[in-house]
Amino acid sequence: MEIIARPKGGNVDRMAEKVFMKSIEILGGLKKLVEYRNLTWLPSLAEAAYVIVLRNEALKTYSEIARELGITEATAKNIATADEMKVLEYVRGGLEERPKEHVAGGIAKLAYKALKESGELDVDEVSLNDEMTEILEIAWAVQVLSKIKGLDFPAGKEQLGERLAGILVKVRGGEYRIEELLERIDYPVNGPSELLHKLKMAASS
């Protein structure tokens, strides 16, 4: 008898936000990331949070996740199959060398399991702390990742402009309309991480 897994339902965006914020908590909090200059981890954590939620809650295949997030199928699989305990040992300083595991994927898996065990993942409330994200200028990155969900990459200016209109990008104390930044970057854009990097560079230049 064939058993067909069905999606469990729920708001994927909100669940991914919760996994993202729990991941930061596991890493010691936003202040810790600032102290160790690890804010570059945030886009990878956001991407991994979406992969884990789409895999476990929406029951998407690796190829479906890859298409939806604009990443490779191998990346989606590496995130979803990362050994979370080995990653945790590395983050806590128990390993001298960086493991082959996808670090952001391992952290996101730990965050997802913690939220599931506590029952917090299914609660329909926004757990993203707006004040904290605004202070550290990461809210725009989370908004961008949310808006481009399902977009096929490589993507051009017109496609991105339609999805991202109205977002304000805050970088190093400056505030920029994303439409202005999209005029400054090179195309095509090959994936979410590249898009965030190009936008940040455009705002910093």
TrEMBL record:
InterPro entries: CHP03879_regulat_dom_put. NCBIfam families: near_KaiC_dom. This is KaiC associated regulatory domain-containing protein. The lineage of its organism: Archaea, Methanobacteriati, Methanobacteriota, Archaeoglobi, Archaeoglobales.
